[in-house]
Specification:
This protein has helices spanning about 30-55, 60-80, 95-100, 105-130, 135-155, 165-195, 250-260, 270-295, 310-335, 345-350, 355-380, 380-385, 390-400, 410-430; strands at about 10-15, 15-20. By secondary structure, the chain is mainly alpha-helical. The longest helix has about 35 residues, at about 165-195. Helix 4 runs antiparallel to helix 8 (about 270-295), helix 5 (about 135-155) packs antiparallel against helix 6 and helix 6 crosses helix 7. It has one domain. The model is unreliable at about 1-20 and about 200-245 (pLDDT under 50). The protein is built from 14 helices and two strands. The radius of gyration is 23 Å and the shape is globular.
């Protein structure tokens, strides 16, 4: 038996010819599930780095998230129309279009609830990245997700995962939360020391004091007015490609602060960590909600109505995620938060700086979530939470692309290595707990 069993083709020979019967793409064993989890890990660890890159180059988060939301939904539609529609509809596994006409609203509502909390979590993290950095944000949110979400999924999945292996892995993630907070505290102290020792005197203006009221008439560093209505971005083309100061230096931090859309130097650390913990709580609930949507553990469906196939559930999940993301970010265009400048929908349409990267991020996140759910349906959603090891990927991008932790203290490096090591151990343990769902 092939581990992924895509599109099984059954040929029956007869005197009059051959009949070709196609079966829906399904994942049926742990090998295939783990392969999908690894792909999801790569995608889900990369898309936050792309959005962080755009924020650090001055693009408004509202503009970026609107682009991201479009392709995030597109990924779900593509999965539903291909994997979910291939082959004939079966009584216990109807295809995508068949399920759209069935009376399965209780499961649909669970799927949509999962999409809502995921969208709120993603919205929170796009601001948290600016305050505490990509690496620490992903570590803390992922660890909270595993501690709460994995525990809920374990009991919802009728304990198909091995508890004696699963929960030590959860404990490792919990330790990673503490180490992640310690890394941020130590790195923030390092940056403060660099700024104090630097000959450059940077006048701190935090995004929380209300002093930074940017609008259409604000000028950039060259004295050229910036007009958001005309779609002029906060930065020039050169800012997307050139970093003059060496990463990790005080000059680098100051230069970065001038370019980025969210001003954070001197801001309250507690504000950033509070946003991170809110995001983590949201993330911890979306996978259990999706689990309920596809497996109906609470018996909310009428007798005889088949469970939502993972592809159909993911479609509804992404619809609600799209509606919340689009609605809130259009509101934030006109009523921005955290001291960001106001904008408009017309300005968003004209802002093409970095749009292709934002669209790519949406596709990566969409396919990453889809693969996670496909793997979870086969091997248990608790084991699928191993994709929350995405900080291993995002930390790599944070160091390579953004110069995080460059020229930091030995204490920060020790804490960073300890945090990553604990993550690697936790991921290995969680994947080892994979079970097999009875169909």
């Amino acid at each position: 038996m092939n581990c992924l069993q895509p599109l099984q083709v059954f040929l029956s020979d007869s005197f009059f010819g051959q009949h070709l019967v196609l079966k829906m793409y399904v994942v049926e064993d742990k090998g295939g599930a783990i392969a999908l989890m690894l792909a999801a890990l790569l995608f889900l660890g990369t898309w936050p780095a792309v959005l962080t890159l755009l924020e650090q180059r001055g693009r408004l988060p509202q503009h970026t998230y609107l682009d991201y939301s479009l392709t995030n939904l597109l990924a779900a539609v593509l999965i539903a129309l291909t994997f979910g529609q291939i082959g004939d509809s079966k009584p216990n596994m109807p295809n995508f279009f068949t399920q759209l006409t069935q009376d399965n609203w209780p499961s649909i509502l669970f799927a949509m609830a999962g999409g809502i909390v995921l969208s709120l979590g993603n919205l929170a993290t796009q601001y948290a990245w600016a305050y505490v950095g990509l690496s620490v944000t992903e570590v803390i949110t992922s660890s909270i997700t595993v501690v709460i979400g994995t525990t809920l999924n374990y009991f919802l999945d009728d304990r198909i995962n091995k508890a004696e292996i699963l929960f030590p892995g959860v404990g490792c993630f919990l330790i990673a939360v503490c180490l992640g907070s310690a890394v941020h505290t130590s790195n923030a102290a390092d940056n403060e020391k660099k700024l104090k020792d630097s000959s450059n005197k940077y006048q701190n203006k935090t995004s929380t004091t209300g002093d930074q009221e940017l609008s259409k008439g604000v000028s950039d560093e060259a004295g050229i007015p910036k007009d958001l209505e005309n779609g002029i971005s906060h930065v020039s083309n050169a800012d997307f490609n050139v970093d003059k100061a060496k990463a990790g230096t005080a000059e680098f931090l100051i230069q970065l602060e001038k370019k980025r859309s969210i001003k954070v130097l001197g801001s309250n650390t507690c504000l950033g960590l509070s946003i991170v913990f809110v995001a983590g709580i949201c993330f911890s609930l979306f996978s259990p909600a999706f689990n309920l949507a596809t497996n109906d553990q609470w018996h909310a469906l009428k007798e005889g109505v088949p469970h939502l196939v993972v592809y159909t559930a993911f479609f509804y999940f992404s619809i609600s995620c799209f509606v919340v993301g689009i609605g809130l970010n259009i509101w934030f265009l006109y009523k921005p938060v955290l001291g960001l400048p106001s904008s408009s929908f017309a300005a968003y349409l004209k802002d093409w700086k970095g749009r292709h990267w934002a669209l790519l991020a949406g596709l990566l996140c969409g396919f990453g979530n889809g693969f996670q759910f496909m793997g979870g349906q086969a091997a248990g959603y608790a084991a699928a939470d191993s994709v929350q090891a995405l900080p291993l990927v995002s930390t790599f991008w944070g160091i390579v692309l953004f110069g995080e932790y460059r020229r930091s203290s030995r204490k920060t490096y020790v804490l960073l290595v300890s945090m990553l090591f604990m993550f690697i151990v936790a991921v290995g343990v969680l994947m080892a707990s994979s079970g097999h769902r009875k169909t």
